[in-house]
Write a structure and sequence with these properties.
Layout lengths: L2 E10 L2 E11 L4 E5 L6 H9 L6 E6 L2 E2 L4 H7 L1 E4 L11 H5 L6 E2 L8 E2 L1 H14 L15 H13 L5 E5 L7 H16 L3 E5 L3 H7 L2 E6 L2 E7 L5 H9 L1
Parallel strand pairs: 3-10, 3-11, 6-9, 9-10
Antiparallel strand pairs: 1-2, 1-4, 4-5, 7-8, 11-12
Amino acid sequence: MLLRIEGLHKHYGGVHALDDVSLSVDTGTVIGLVGDNGAGKSTLMKCVTGAEKPDHGSIVFDGQPIGLTPFDSRQAGIEMIYQDLDLCLRQDVTANIFLGREDLVHLWGMQTPFMNHKAMNESGRALIQTLNADIDVSKEAGSLSGGQRQAVAIARALLHHPKLLVMDEPTAALGVREITKVLNLIRSLKDQGITVILISHRLSDIFEVADRIVMMRHGKIVDDNAVSETSLTKVTQRLMM
């Protein structure tokens, strides 16, 4: 078991955003996390990634309790890609992948370091290739399609060698062809042994790539089933109850 959450509670004033949430996630699986807006999905994942601090409960990752900051979670092997991707659209792909983690070298005895563009380009291309994506790393991020931008965001996350990658609505506002590319990226991550938690309102995407589907409502987990043991119709009806 990679991730174990037990008895998580989170309040925002009088709002009980997480109400005694418990969840277990195995290594190398894709979990679909679904529910209406305000169900608690993003709050739960923000607690896992250290962006929010739960009021009560525990989070154990890879056999160890994790800290309560984004740095602690990242050090443990947890990364989250938010819906807005947080890319610098006027910078090239390599610059976006290495943003804040540039490969610096000192030349000719100078104290001021220089960026090792050659090494970063080579590493950037290698990361993109692990995702089976066809992207020129010298291109500006703003010139890329939605699916290609997702690949860049994933490649940036892979720099930390994550064991768990949380993706928040990665296929929102994409066309059919681009959605297919993103779902293939998720399959590629699973093939590499990386666990994925996929937050999405697109149930068809969940059924395409997930092993389990976890449903939240009013801060609680109300359903947790293997995808093979349920159906799109059943989940849709459950969400409308």
